[in-house]
């Protein structure tokens, strides 16, 4: 198969009613012998479909399909495919557009009807194909819509209002993502005549009605329709439908029966109404409109709705209170005041059985709490008051004073005061040694009074209390004094060095003892050396002192030391600073002293020898044994005296003396 082409004649874009021809041609080569079979398939909008019978041609490589009198439904995207001996080849796509929709034709079976009657409407577009959606309109309002694939639709439509109906129809065709809308059909007018079923409402009697009298309200329509079984009459007051007998509603009226009464008549789906207005202010009958009648008549109360009151307004448990029930107005020409009987109810239970004077007295308590209503009755007429809620106030209970955090001397802290019971509002007072410090009035349940205080001694904390009051005629109830642990800030830290700075010798241990003169443990103690080394050690203790040990000190441990102390919520308390120097060990000093003595002895011997040599050259005569012995004795005595003197200094002053005699031997070094 070399190629497959699809062509459209006379054109791909045509008007409605044009005869279309689709030609699918294939250019193929074969090896002679038996001619292979050609399989043709046509597609519209990607779906395979049979468009028409193929027309025979002399060329097996060409097939023609016809679409006679094309319609809008034939618009779409076309393609053909050819299969030969297992090979399949598709043509290019061709878009066919058929323009124009047939204008629909509207017909009706009646041109004049009565309100509520129906008319049969037919809308035709028989020349169109496909699924059509018809729409029928009365003026600009759509009254019906229907989908059909028969090219026409018929529907029975009721006409319910008196007028001249203007009926039209149209249709639309959905083509994939596009919607094609037809023109509007011809316009047909149908006369709709009024159905005279507007009800009239009459009231008897019309004037001078007093509570307890019987009022009759009658609904009636045109006698032509009054007895029709399909006629529906209803009398309504607000949302409630009233029960009528023989089109009349009878009622022994109360003041609460005042208002508008509406009579509704319905026949064949047509509804019309009239109304009457009952008012206590009086008036006269008046025709309100053609469609509805409204009446107004004098309506006097036999007695007014009772009211219930509770005195006094604020009642605490244990106090007396009174509930009163009264009707303020009554028709004196009909009844006496004593004819009105009162009953008082608490939570719908009568609490004045056998008494009708409208008074109830009791002592306030939990049992007397509730919703109070009262009823007033004259003969068969009963009126009820609105409900009044009564709840006896509860005297405040003894308050409790607490804190929610540590109390630190010299720092502000929060105090809370709360009473478990008591009616709001409650006035809380913070008191210190009979002195009022602050007030707080609470108006919400489960709320605590909060105060802020600062104390400077533990005794001040335990002198705080709070009072609560919610009734002016009673003294405030006092809490116990505040029981709270008090934290005294750490103060006056003192650093002691053991041994004393003068007795510190290298190789020994040094104890840095940090003591706190005042404060509440636990304490956090930190030891510092005043140089670049900073913090040495940190310890937390529950006592007023702690120590840090410098083990086997050396000369580099010399310096200035101090400590600081801190407990909960306090600032740092710095100690005094102590400086010390690590002295050389005694054995090192003795070794140096011995070296000095040896060096001195050598110097003395050398001096004596040089001295004798000089004397010998001067006299050249040998001294006698006695002279020699005397000189040696003097030298020995002199050296012995020196050694004896030095020995006597070792016991306490040798170090200091030799530091003066041989300072160069006492220069300190790491060695």
Automatic annotation (TrEMBL):
The chain crosses the membrane at residues 590-611, 632-651. Residues 2-82, 199-279, 306-389, 399-487, 489-581 form the Ig-like domain. SMART domains: IG. Keywords: Disulfide bond, Membrane, Signal, Transmembrane, Transmembrane helix. GO terms for molecular function: transmembrane signaling receptor activity. InterPro entries: Ig-like_dom, Ig-like_dom_sf, Ig-like_fold, Ig_Fc_receptor, Ig_sub. PROSITE patterns: IG_LIKE (PS50835). One of its GO terms (cellular component) is external side of plasma membrane. One of its GO terms (biological process) is cell surface receptor signaling pathway. The keyword Signal applies. This is Ig-like domain-containing protein. It comes from Electrophorus voltai.
